[in-house]
Write a structure and sequence with these properties.
Strand content: under 5%
Structural class: mainly alpha
Oligomer: single chain
Number of helices: 30
């Protein structure tokens, strides 16, 4: 049951039901607050003592340990005795708070306001309005120590920026009257914030109050000159000039994207009926664009996609439902679904739509449904995904539709993991995607093609080739505003250090830096367990033991890492049991890497059946790097794993 911590006001905690946690006295809350300020980093006990007491009393270190023990009981009341804490952990010389980003309101607030920078005005408005609603008073309100004052000031600046950005978003969607009262109070409390004065004047002008707007600018000029001795900024002076000429800054030339969006959206709302089928199909187009706009957009689109499909199914029009399902042709590169339950529901809806299509329905509509089945069936057993991919590709080639073929090839790629050693086949898929998309102006699928080739060339140890595809993907991403591409290329460059012969410490630091981009990226299927797996592969490549902390979250990779971790702890009987219980790895981008982990454990434990299975599986990939098909991590050449297997099995 996840607990949450609140510091945007007095420091409090809540359990999963929303009930307040008993955090004991002010010193206990101060320890928790100080660990929140550290943002997951270790705070040494000595530092905690200095931060809690101006003149530490005798026994202060013991007191801190007592506070920590009480906090652990409050945060994890159901933790069995002697089981290590998961949330407030001991590490090295001190303590750290290891909770998800969304479990602390201040962290969640900063993530939400940061994610609101790239979205359209309506999304920005919703995000900022929601985030500002989490404030209950001044941050760390019950503490006045230097560390609390510093963090309170920093968060307050973020809050003030968010207030002004929210006002700007309301102006962008044509709601100036909603802004005036809030901004008037805002400038009264914070008179030195020029952006607040500018927005207030602009809101008054757009509300038809030109004289009041000019009066606000005169007040701002007087305050700045008389009390600070500075002139208003050029932007503020220009606004005054524009208002005197009855020109809105946003209308002083060609309208900007925000204003065009707001005007178009307003016209759409006025013109298209709320229950219109056209509106539902338009929503899918928006969701598609939203999913590629950045982390917040991807998560928001995923949250609304099933709702759109359900709304279409309720209308009882199979062709409309098929268009709503198949219109979401967002390129997919990772073979583990971010939301397996949702993916299964989408596949089921697509299959229902396929069964309900009328005989005269467009072949392209049928192919889009089949491609959706292929993409959303990634990582699941059974032949249906592969047959759907083949049929979608066949129809797309017959119709000569480039966009449809690109979508179908994405499904073919997702179903190209039926055995080890298929990097050359995936490289060919990527090459066709790049050429097709470049010819027909399909930048999203051109990026996908370069990422597919980056993965395939990495698997084949052609890092010069992979470098070129990484650069091409980054260039297209910059040009077409696809920020999530950088997540994959940054991980690739961490992997690339192994081929460059960099020391393991350099590679580990690069992996940790790359992993820092994953929280909040909207890709849980990529995020969970990936950093521990990459660091384990790094250790094994450099002949180091597979040691790990007790609280390491291996995510979906636990069954295949556990035997080696237990061996490193000198628990061979438990390791042998774990190896016997480990299922065959899923057929995805990490298929060879996980089989190599099985191979290593099997050789160490002399488990001949596991060794034979591992060898038979890995043999077709003898010329590839284990895991490098992911473009993110590697255990080294598969051939280096086959040699010990052959020796242990007595092969020549």
């Amino acid at each position: 049951m996840q607990v949450t911590v609140g510091v945007l006001g007095p420091v409090v905690g809540w359990d999963g039901t929303g009930a307040r946690l008993d955090l004991k006295g002010p010193r206990h809350r101060a320890v928790l607050a100080r660990l929140v300020v550290a943002r997951g980093q270790v705070v040494p006990v000595d530092r905690l003592v200095d931060d809690l007491w101006p003149a530490p009393p005798p026994g202060a270190v013991s007191a801190v340990r007592t506070f920590v023990a009480a906090l652990r009981r409050a945060l994890e009341p159901d933790r069995p005795p002697r089981e290590p804490a998961r949330l407030l952990v001991t590490e090295g010389p001190g303590y750290a708070l290891r909770v998800p980003r969304d479990a602390v309101d201040a962290w969640r607030f900063e993530d939400e306001t940061a994610a609101a920078t790239a979205g359209p005005p309506y999304e920005t408005l919703d995000r900022l309005d929601r985030a500002l609603g989490w404030w209950r008073g001044p941050a760390y309100a019950d503490f006045d120590e230097p560390w609390a004052r510093t963090e309170r000031f920093r968060l307050e600046q973020v809050r003030l920026d968010a207030v002004e950005r929210l006002a700007g978003a309301r102006l962008a969607v044509g709601r100036p009257a909603d802004v005036v009262a809030d901004l008037d109070a805002h400038v009264a409390e914070h008179p030195w914030r020029e952006e607040a004065w500018r927005l207030l004047a602009l809101a008054l002008y757009r509300a038809g109050r030109q004289a009041d707007a000019l009066g606000v600018l005169r007040r701002a000029r007087g305050l700045l000159r008389e009390q600070l001795g500075i002139d208003p900024s050029p932007r503020l002076r220009q606004l005054e000039t524009d208002l005197l000429r009855q020109r809105d800054q946003a209308d002083g030339g060609p309208p900007g994207p925000d204003r065009i969006w707001a005007d178009t959206a307003a016209a759409y709302h006025r013109t298209v009926a709320a229950d219109s089928r056209v509106r539902l199909e338009s929503t899918v187009g928006l969701l598609r664009s939203l999913a590629m706009a950045g982390p917040g957009g991807l998560e928001a689109a995923r949250g609304q996609r099933l709702a759109a499909i359900a709304a279409a199914e309720r209308l009882g029009d199979a062709d409309l439902t098929a268009r709503v399902i198949g219109g979401y042709d967002v390129p997919a590169i990772w073979t583990r679904s971010d939301d397996p339950e949702q993916a299964a529901a989408i596949v089921a809806a697509a299959e229902r739509a396929l069964g309900a299509l009328r005989p005269g329905s467009a072949d392209a509509t049928r192919a889009r449904l089949l491609a959706t089945v292929a993409v959303e069936s990634r990582g699941t057993p059974g032949p249906r995904g592969r047959t759907a991919a083949r049929e979608a590709e066949r129809i797309a080639r017959r119709l000569g539709d480039p966009a449809l073929l690109a979508f179908a090839l994405n499904g073919t790629f997702m179903q190209s993991f039926q055995r080890a050693g298929l990097a050359p086949e995936r490289d060919a898929i990527g090459a066709e995607l790049v050429a097709l998309s470049a010819r027909h102006g399909l930048p999203a699928f051109e990026i996908l093609g370069h990422l597919v080739r980056l993965q395939a060339r990495s698997a084949l140890a052609d890092f010069d080739g992979a470098d070129g595809h990484a650069a091409a993907a980054d260039g297209l991403a910059l040009r077409h505003e696809r920020p999530l591409v950088g997540v994959f290329t940054q991980w690739y460059r961490a992997l690339r250090l192994s081929a460059a012969g960099e020391p393991p410490e350099v590679e580990e630091a690069a992996y940790r830096e790359a992993a820092a981009r994953l929280p909040g990226a909207g890709m849980p299927g990529v995020e969970r367990g990936l950093l521990p797996l990459a660091l384990l592969c790094l250790r094994l490549r450099h002949h180091r033991p597979a040691d790990a902390d007790d609280d390491t979250d291996w995510g979906p990779y636990a069954p295949w890492t556990r035997p080696l971790v237990l061996l490193a702890r000198e628990r061979p009987a438990d390791a042998a049991a774990a190896l016997r219980q480990a299922p065959d790895p899923p057929r995805d981008l990490l298929y060879e890497a996980l089989w190599c982990l099985i191979a290593r454990a099997a050789v160490a434990l002399a488990d001949r059946p596991a060794m034979r299975r591992a060898r038979a599986t890995l043999a077709p990939a003898a010329g590839e790097l284990a895991g490098a098909g992911s473009g993110l991590l590697t255990l080294g050449p598969v051939a280096d794993e086959l040699d010990p297997l052959d020796a242990a099995l007595g092969r020549a």
